[in-house]
Design brief:
The chain is built from one helix and nine strands, in the order αβββββββββ. By secondary structure, the protein is an alpha+beta fold. The N and C termini lie far apart (51 Å).
């Protein structure tokens, strides 16, 4: 009986871990994600394309690193860091960690982390908009 309990516990843990990694891999988040829409806290304040205040993209590599690049007024700024994909009850999130402070970090907490989540239409969106930052949406 003791061996049976250990076996069931082991299989349960192994099975739950493998489901998370399959879900993570199936999202297809690796590659380039380009900013396609900006919105402010004022209703109907969406801008798209060249009308946006800046152009930017994320490049997510398969080795857990990413690059973020922004062009504004002809000046291009790029920064790289690491990321982790996590699955929560309300969906899939990417947690980005930057090595140092940068104006490119869109965070509510003023730290060197940024959180993105997958929308219902499989775009990426930021959580910065939850604390009066701009709403930013990215498409692969």
């Amino acid at each position: 009986m003791k061996h049976f309990v250990i076996l069931v516990t082991f299989l349960s843990i192994f099975n739950s871990c493998s489901k998370d990694s399959v879900a993570t891999d199936s999202m297809g988040y690796h590659g380039k994600w380009t900013l396609v829409k900006m919105s402010g806290s004022i209703p109907n304040s969406e801008t798209m394309g060249t009308a946006m205040e800046w152009q930017e993209f994320y490049l997510f590599n398969t080795n857990g690193t990413f690059t973020k690049s922004r062009e504004r007024n002809g000046i291009k700024i790029t920064i790289s860091g690491t990321y982790a994909a996590t699955s929560h009850s309300d969906g899939m999130y990417l947690e980005l960690i930057y090595p140092n402070d940068s104006e490119l970090i869109g965070s509510c907490y003023g730290n060197q982390k940024e959180i993105l989540y997958f929308t219902d239409n499989n775009n990426l969106s930021n959580t910065w908009k939850n604390c009066d930052g701009p709403g930013l949406e990215y498409k692969k």
